[in-house]
Amino acid sequence: MKAVGVIVEYNPFHNGHAYHVQSAKEASGADVVVAVMSGNFLQRGEPALVSKWYRTKMALLNGVDVVIELPYQFAVQKAETFANGAVSILDAVGCHSLCFGSESGDILSFKKTIKFIERNQQQLDDNIQKNIKTGVSYPKALSLSYQEMSSGEEFVNLAKPNNILGYHYIKSLLEQNSHIEPLTVQRKNADYHDEHFATETIASATSIRKALFSNNEDHPSIEQYVPETTYQLLKDYQFDFGGFHRWENYWPLLQFRLIQSSPNELREIYEVEEGLEHRLKGAAITSISFQDFMQQVKTKRYTWTRLQRICVHILTNSKKDEMKTGLEKASYLRLLGMTQKGKEYLNKQKSHVSLPLVSKLSAFKQPVIMHDIKASQIYSLGLGSASAARLSQLEYKQPPIYIK
Amino acid sequence: MKAVGVIVEYNPFHNGHAYHVQSAKEASGADVVVAVMSGNFLQRGEPALVSKWYRTKMALLNGVDVVIELPYQFAVQKAETFANGAVSILDAVGCHSLCFGSESGDILSFKKTIKFIERNQQQLDDNIQKNIKTGVSYPKALSLSYQEMSSGEEFVNLAKPNNILGYHYIKSLLEQNSHIEPLTVQRKNADYHDEHFATETIASATSIRKALFSNNEDHPSIEQYVPETTYQLLKDYQFDFGGFHRWENYWPLLQFRLIQSSPNELREIYEVEEGLEHRLKGAAITSISFQDFMQQVKTKRYTWTRLQRICVHILTNSKKDEMKTGLEKASYLRLLGMTQKGKEYLNKQKSHVSLPLVSKLSAFKQPVIMHDIKASQIYSLGLGSASAARLSQLEYKQPPIYIK
Question: How many domains does the structure of chain A reveal?
């Protein structure tokens, strides 16, 4: 049995994702699709709309066969670390290929780009430094430098968000000496950050979330952009837990923690550097919402996404010493769910899987997984105390979801 | 000019307090009344109904001439430490007498009781130990031991909450070699913890708060039990800030902090001892309200009040090292307000006042006062982010209230 890996967040699972899963299967000729999925907090420093269990169900009902959680330590990170964690999990579980969506859609240009950059690393670093001096953020300087160096050649445009992720996936595969073959399919229509509905059936997750959060009664229905099962699961979640998770729900908690902690305590948090603790504390008491707060603290140097990640780390009390070790590879596989075919695959692979496969939390108590549990408990606070008790019980009691 | 001191919380100021202020003036023959008042968090480990500024106004409009804040470090403490701080402030400001309300109403029995206990300290300690072994809490054991030893004599009943406070006031006066003369007036009608309205005009603060928090539209009006000015200030506060402060408002913050902090971090908090951190953390995620949480964590050993104080310390991030030093005497006088007569008194006293008199926060930055400011900021979070910004600005910008 052959497996193709995909690296996802499914926030929420929509028709574009279904297209990606199908394309991955076709392009790879694999029998099963294994998804590594961010848990309750996402790469861009946001709480997921609905819990990882519901997102796992959405995936399994729409073509994915196995869902494994990307631990918090890798998920709420810049692209490079995110890629390292995800690729190491796909490798451990024995995938033959990894298929990612990209704006480029051409795997050869990715490989060409990587080789070119490897050969010209020094010049790239110099260009980045030069661009940073003009006052732009690091990610911006990086993408400018790529563009400057690759002009005229058939390289991948690394200013595009999915291209840069793909670039890091391949780089991680190379660095980890993985046998996984990288594949890419072109993303259909919807730009990652696009807030508007693009076509009849495909829309970005961003635009879908925007529609879900709109108070306007006559906002466009998301029904046509997501599989029926996603639509139903979103409705169930809203009914069962009283709403969806968004940053504003956590603002009172973040504000409280910023005010009650000392600058020294804040400095212990991962990525709080260079006096940022004072800036964050100063803005906390006068801000009346998360949006308001972010507007006050953002600078050219700190992008919105980087600041959002820092805010998630403060919320989850993620310390430098907890977050900085073991970032090369994952150390366990937390199984969130599988189909019957996924189960067959895992059974056949069993003896080859190179990391402990965790399906019962009580049987496995490593510090990293304890951190995931804490993050889930804090995530569960976003919809009030009554929902929190039930949501966080899921974390302990929910066995991997199994769909026949 | 002679001043009589009173030690108060005014949560809120009611007719019984007005009676106490008048009686204090009459009993002492003083020209002015100086009140030492708990700030935004109170001795029993609760947020005050309304901010200290509004409670200061209530006091100044009803017979009190000077209001000085009892720092958090002394206010949210057992009776002994509370008394030490309050008495040291009255002493520093030059009061001739201290007049407290008590169930006993007889100052001679207080003095007799103190002498008796001094002479029999060893036996008292033995009795306390004996009673603790029967499984009761420390305060209960203390009061039982007092009762056992003082039976048949004309001693003060130290099982009564105001008697025990008075006992500690006099003890602190003696220990601090103060020249202040202690006086007591009998409390009128309302028992401290009484939840029901007792007479036509006098009701306990507890019953008044209960009426204010009642959702029942036809709950008895508090109008007849409080001065008109208190009634109006409570209405103003509700209108300006959207409600009153109560523990349930802070429950989401406390729950969050209990979940996100490690047991080691919790153990740094003042009075978190003997593994209590695990008990608190364990109950946090499954509790759906503060009441629910308290029911889960309380034991015979930990009284409700002691646990509430610990919860306030966790909320305000009050560490052992911050709270355990300088507990013998206050180190500054934070002036919250004065009448014209109070101002005259302070001007005349100026050269005799033995501690720095703080009326502008910006001019005085000691760690202890910074802790008061933090406590006020956290208190301000109890009514939502929009009110928080305005409430916490009061802390910095509000000059002492002056009423001509």
Answer: 3
- Residue A147 sits in which domain range? 106-111+118-159
Looking at the structure, do residues A85 and A231 belong to the same domain, yes or no? Answer: yes
A321 lies within 8 A of chain B by CB? no
Mean pLDDT of chain A: 90
Q: Which of A399, A37, A47, A9 is nearest to A241 (CA)?
A: A47
Average pLDDT over residues B126-153: 79
| Residue B208, token pair as written in the block | 């008044």
pLDDT 10s digits, A275-296: 999 999 999 988 999 999 999 9
Distances in Å between the Cα of B282 and the Cα atoms of A216, A392, B263, B288, B293 are 41, 13, 11, 13, 10
| B275 shares a domain with B219 | no
Instruction: Compute CA B389 distance to the chain's CA centroid, rounded to the nearest angstrom.
Output: 25
How distant, in Å, are the alpha carbons of A126, A142, A159 from that of A146?
A: 11, 6, 8
pLDDT at B193: 56
Contacts of B287 in chain A (CB under 8 A): 385, 389
- Is A173 part of a structural domain of the chain? no
Q: What does the pLDDT look like over B366-380, one tens digit per residue?
A: 777 889 999 999 999
Q: Is there a single domain that holds both residue A317 and residue A334?
A: no
- In this complex, do A253 and B251 lie within 8 Å of one another by their Cβ atoms? no
Residue A171 within a domain: no
Q: Are residues A257 and A306 in the same domain?
A: yes
* pTM, 2 dp: 0.92
Residue A84 sits in a domain whose CATH number is 3.40.50.620
Which of B269, B295, B322 marks a domain boundary?
B322
Residue A191 has pLDDT above 80, yes or no: no
Ramachandran angles phi, psi of B370, nearest 5°: -60, -35
Contacts of A257 in chain B (CB under 8 A): 256-257, 260
Q: Which of B283, B300, B322 is the last residue of a domain?
A: B322
Torsion angle, CA of B364/B366/B367/B373, rounded to 10 degrees?
-20
A286 interfacial to chain B (CB closer than 8 Å): yes
- Exposure b/e, A149-177, CB count within 10 A at least 16 = b: bbeeeebbbbebbbbbbbbbbbbbbeeee
B253 and B399 belong to one structural domain: no
Q: Which secondary-structure segment (H or E) carries A240?
A: helix A228-241
Contact between B164 and B5 (Cβ < 8 Å): no
Q: What is the pLDDT of residue B385?
A: 83
CB B289 to CB A385 under 8 A?
yes
> What's the ipTM?
0.91
Q: Where are the alpha helices (DSSP H) in B135-216?
A: 138-149, 161-175, 205-213
Å from B209 to nearest chain A CA? Answer: 24
Rg of chain B over all Cα atoms, to the nearest angstrom: 21
A192 and A284 both lie in a single domain: no
> A168 lies in a domain?
no
The residue type of A245 is H
Whether B167 is in a domain gets the answer no
